[in-house]
Specification:
This protein has 10 helices and 4 strands; from the N terminus they run ααβαββαβαααααα. It is of the alpha+beta class and 308 residues long. The chain has 2 domains: 194 residues, Multidrug efflux transporter AcrB transmembrane domain (Multidrug efflux transporter AcrB transmembrane fold); 81 residues, Alpha-Beta Plaits. Strands 2-3-1-4 form a 4-stranded antiparallel beta sheet. The longest helix is centred in the last third of the chain and has 31 residues.
Length: 308
């Protein structure tokens, strides 16, 4: 005997409450854009250029004193944080175009040497250099990656269903992307290549959820040719609700595990995933599906399957 966590049939009036969803989305979108344009993003060295060092000591070092000493040396913006435990430290240093990174690195090593003893030496496990020019190229590559994914997804949904579905899907994905960028602006997590990866991952999750609902909408349009679009969308979303909740819950649990136990290195990515799963599920129900009501979708258009 199988156990049902959710009722087999639900009758929530999602379409009747669509204006609540639209209003909430508009408020969150404006808030996210406002934070982005006022506070900006905490760009990582992937985009700004700089030096990334990972060091290890047998005995933990005091971050506050290290930060104070390094700041007094006239380096660029410096960020220090523990990664995993108190003995592992990640140091990020933003440098100007005129600074030679190898000389800055050597100077940082000299300064750090004064903070340790022979019994507690520093092990330099990783030193990465990213130039300002490379950072700009990475920004452009990240933007093109997101835009290309949008275009490919829209074409896929358009050819699989109808053009109205493609427009609805893109509206939801734009909404999700703005929410994720706003999340990074509010939380001040570092926005680098891992943030781009988080956006693309959430885009993939969100479109998968939307396609499942769209598939049920198309099936119901063939079954109920005389049903009003408003009612048909409600029925379709309710019929896929159990699957949507189960999928989002399992994905959310995995993301929460990463956020709690994954450590500082992927903390921004994993927290963005937790937020993105919630937003992606919400947009599938309250953005991509209701959008079809305003795109002149007709049950008669789905009466016959498309030719292969």
């Amino acid at each position: 005997m199988s156990i049902r966590l959710f009722p087999e049939k639900t009758h929530f009036d999602f379409m009747g409450n669509r204006w609540v969803g639209f209003g909430l989305s508009i408020v969150l979108t404006l808030f996210s854009l406002g934070i982005m344009f006022t506070k900006g993003l905490n760009l990582g060295i992937d985009f700004t250029g700089g030096i990334l060092m990972e060091i290890h000591t047998e005995k933990p070092l005091e971050l506050a004193s290290m930060r104070e000493v390094l700041n007094h040396q006239g380096f660029g913006e410096i960020s220090l944080q523990n990664t995993g435990n108190a003995s592992d430290i990640m140091i990020r240093i933003q440098v100007s175009k005129d600074d030679e990174q190898s000389k800055v690195t050597a100077k940082v090593k000299d300064v750090l040497a004064t903070q340790t003893t022979a019994e507690n030496p520093i092990d330099y496990r990783k030193i990465d250099y990213v130039g300002p020019t490379v950072g700009q190229e990475l920004i452009q590559a990240g933007v093109w990656a997101v835009l290309s994914s949008f275009a490919a997804i829209m074409l896929y949904v358009w050819f699989r269903f109808e053009w109205q579905y493609g427009v609805g899907a893109i509206l939801a994905l734009i909404h999700d992307s703005i929410m994720i960028i706003g999340f990074f602006a509010v939380t001040r997590f570092e926005f680098g290549l891992t943030a781009i990866a988080a956006i693309l991952t959430i885009v993939g999750y969100s479109i998968n959820d939307s396609v499942v609902i769209y598939d049920r909408i198309r099936e119901n349009m063939r079954r109920f040719k005389k049903m009003e679009v408003f009612e048909l969308l409600n029925v379709s979303v309710n019929e896929t609700l159990s699957r949507t909740i189960l999928t989002s819950t399992t994905t959310l649990l995995a993301s929460l595990a990463l956020a709690i136990f994954g450590g500082e290195v992927i903390r921004g990515f994993s927290c963005a995933m937790v937020f993105g799963v919630v937003i992606g599920t919400y947009s599938s129900i309250y953005i991509s599906a209701p959008a079809l009501m305003y795109l002149n979708i007709r049950p008669q258009a789905a009466a016959e399957p498309k030719a292969a």
